[in-house]
Amino acid sequence: MTASLSLLLLESLTAGRIALAILIFTVSSFIVDFTWKPRYPSSIPRVGFGGGIIGTFRNWIGYVTHFNAWVEEGYEKYTKNDRAYVVPSAPSRPQEIVVPRSQTSWLLEFPDRDVSSQEAHDDLLHGHFQFLKTNDHFPITTLHKHLARNLVGLLPGIQEDVHECIDKTFGTDTENWKTLNLWEAWLSIVPQVTNRVLVGKETCHNKAFTDSQVAFADTVVRNSFILNMFPKILHPVVAPFIVTPNWWHWRKSFRMVRPLIEQRQRDMAHKAAGHPDYDAWEPEECLITWLIRQAQADGCADGLDPAVISKSLLPIEFAAIHTTVITGHNLILDLLSADPKENIMDVLKEEASRVFSEEKTGYWTKTGLSRLHRVDSAIRESMRFSHFATALTHRKVTAKDGITNSKEGWHVPYGSYLMIDLAGTHHDPGIYPEPNKFDPLRFSREREEFEARPQDQKDPEEALRVKRLGMVTTSDTYLPFSHGRHACPGRFFVAHELKMILAYLVQTYEIKPIAERPKPIWIGQTIVPPIDAKIEVRRRK
Ligand code: HEM
């Protein structure tokens, strides 16, 4: 009886019926998902293809190609009039409320328990699945606390790695021009240099280790796209399969970094116990040491597990590597396609050579790097001009009863998403004259003019304002590192790293200009950089 019933069931399973069942299941999952999403008050205006079932469906599809156009429209219609508006998002995500610039402080000053950056990032990247169930709060707070204060001591090591990677990648031939893929060139510099401050001198030279971190980060980006296309209700079922490569890349990196973590813990324990062999020994300053110190200070035994330490590196590697590679890639493309009349590479070379020659030891110091006004300005301007995401400041409402915007009179519930538009702000002629022109010395002219003045004509308030034109200063009009207390804690390191790279490149190599800057492609709010772009270089004699 049971056998004949099973046979009957099997016979009725045609390909058409299976496809129909999958379709019904997927559509119902999207409907359930839709009902879970936060509802925004109708008083907040919207951009996109409209509401209702059809409008929502069109918005999901349109998100891939129309997101930037929607945000441009919203900027003109609402942001410029100090109003928030709603922009459609990918199928599995709630729509986002774009907050006008005048309300930046209102949004960023909420306590984390009410408006969370961590939960917004976690949802955006599906961090809970992708970062293998690590609590990224711990490595992030550890980095905030330790990186900036240790940076000066790390500068010589960073410089050594910068020079080593550039020499290896760009070559030493002073006769012949060499053609390089620019994206790959940056990928052969940034992972090693970044890992100098994350895992230290020895492991940052282990290419298999840095490759596994880059592969992990690539996988996170790819999986985010895939998971965003699934209804959220299905994530617990599909995500564990989708993130299999994440586990694989992490295991590979863990095998390589585990001996270092265990040795560091043993050495630090001997030192703490006052072992005489360790009198002169100090641990190498890097994220691994800082994580161990922080876990000890917090009395957190879990945080000392080598597997946990190695997993804690993942969100930081992710935050650090591709952001820097894209920024460097944009920087060189912007510089090489700048107005030839400005002769910008020679201008930067002159500054880099002059300031470096005043460094006594052959190594960059913090003071020396801070005097590279033109190099700094070129990087800051490229980050303004060639943004790699429409918005980089996202927040999720985590207050149980939601939050109220008293200025506009609306209230939004738990789970709402808010963001600050970077692209519109950076290209607003009211903030940046001629915003669609790459003007590499935009931020240094005023600084240099101020510094050239006699001392008695320097007003301290103006001195402070001019100093704030440097690349690490964030504001509501300059957002590549976001703004407020969650602004990127890696930016002080990145500023030094990129300045050293650019200074060494212009001093050591000639690079041929390019006639037209290759254009990126946009998918939703994320850029696909022109990774095929090539450059021609020759080492100076
Ligand atoms: C040019 C390169 C970089 C850019 C453009 C960049 C940009 C950003 C942005 C926009 C945020 C979001 C802040 C927010 O939500 O308000 C962020 C966060 C973060 N970045 Fe960076 N970043 C870069 C490099 C780095 C590096 C090199 C590191 C580490 C060494 C790093 C570590 C972090 C961390 C840990 C966070 C989370 C901060 C928090 O939530 O409190 N970043 N970054």
UniProtKB/TrEMBL annotation:
Cofactor: heme
MF-aspect GO terms: heme binding; iron ion binding; monooxygenase activity; oxidoreductase activity, acting on paired donors, with incorporation or reduction of molecular oxygen
UniProt cross-references to InterPro entries, sorted A to Z: Cyt_P450, Cyt_P450_CS, Cyt_P450_E_grp-IV, Cyt_P450_sf
Pfam families: p450
Keyword Disulfide bond: no
Binding positions for heme per the UniProt entry: C488
Sorted UniProt keywords: Heme, Iron, Metal-binding, Monooxygenase, Oxidoreductase
Homology family: Belongs to the cytochrome P450 family.
Protein name stated in the entry: Cytochrome P450
Organism this protein belongs to: Immersiella caudata
